[in-house]
Known about the structure:
Its EC number is 2.1.1.220. The protein is α+β, with helices and mostly antiparallel strands.
Amino acid sequence: MDFGRPLVSTSGIVTKSNIRLVPETHLGNDPLDILVCQSSNAAARDLFLGNDYHHHPSYSKDELINHTLYNELHLPPPRPTISPGDLVVIFESFTNLNFVYATPKACFSNRNGHFPHDDFIGKPYGCKVRSRNNDGLGFLYLLRPTAELWGRSLPHRTQIVHELDASMIVHNLNLTPNMTVCESGTGSGAMSHCILRSIAPHGKLHTYEFNKVRADKARVEFEGHGLSHLVTVHHRDVCGKMALLKKDTDEQSKETEENKETTDDGKGGFQLGESVAHAIFLDLPEPWLAVPHAAYTLQQSGRICSYSPCMEQTQRTVVALKHCGFHSIQTVEARLKEYYVDEVELEAPPTDLSGIPTQEDSSLQKERCVSGGVLKKNDEQDVNVEAVGDNEVEDIENVTKKRKICARPFAQMRGHTAFLTFATAGNYKTKSNEEDKST
Length: 439
Ligand code: SAM
């Protein structure tokens, strides 16, 4: 992924909020420019360093650094062409996305034909590639991976957070570059990719998954996408129920068999220390058990989001949030209404208005527009609307029609995904927190 690629170092330094200190050695000769730059540098230092900044040996006296400042690093321009090992999203159709890691001599096949990866390597992202068989009639498009496209093409190991909910979550958690974020469970890693893009280039995601196979798989994927420096996958039960699971049924015993290499102490929580995370995202069956740990790990005013499909889960989570001193608690449900573009026949507007009935004229009810057309005799009707007589239908059909491009909503809307509960952390650090449990 582009946001995980090695950064290019330049001469300046930036704050966590990407505010840049201008090296005063490069200010030029204009006295006004110099004054403005010096004043803004001073303001940036005051805002972000307070009075406790110190000189770093490797920087000039104008390039002050402490934990809130970084070397100025930029993403290099996007790689123009596909290289061996690159992740490529394959567009087969609007509803079908797939992916490959471009590998010399490997071949991607689908019902449209065979597509050797060698035909991908060296091509620009976005290009169309034709099948080697079927007379080249089969084709696909090679897309540059983004968090959204990865979410639509990734191998689902669990239910995942989809684009609409993910965007609500990123927005309402106030995620910005260089934040420290905790997430549990990792699942298929779809939400992790969205979080990672928001906190790059210097942020850190700690993601927790108690299923070892999923945790390992996610680690390998992050590595393959060049994101390892931004994320740590913890094989851990954040709710602290692992110990109980060990005693339970056969199936659960199998799960713990998978989990036997864990370093999990069974106490739950994030094990990062107190007040270290800027935001926490929970996608767990029992999020309320993780809430006291989240209260301990979150900085004051840090944001939390819990994603639950059922209202009962949401209610229990809200009670736990209130109990642990969270405020500004809000639950929302987002629905996606997608549109497609279609060509439809529309009547040309009349040029002579004299024959047009007035609004009061009851005959207006006879010509009721339904789904882009004009009501005809056999169309379904609401009460109070008469069918149009045969002769009138003919008249209507004789009216000049024009083909127009228009946007229409899909007849079906994706149903309920989850309730998203957001809240802001207070300064509550008490008994049920990790510190007390670990002592
Ligand atoms: N948000 C993920 C995504 O977008 O791909 C999907 C998460 S999935 C629905 C829930 C995951 O939480 C599962 O992989 C499950 O193994 C994990 N999980 C459930 N309880 C857990 C716990 N107490 N600690 C850590 N992980 C847990």
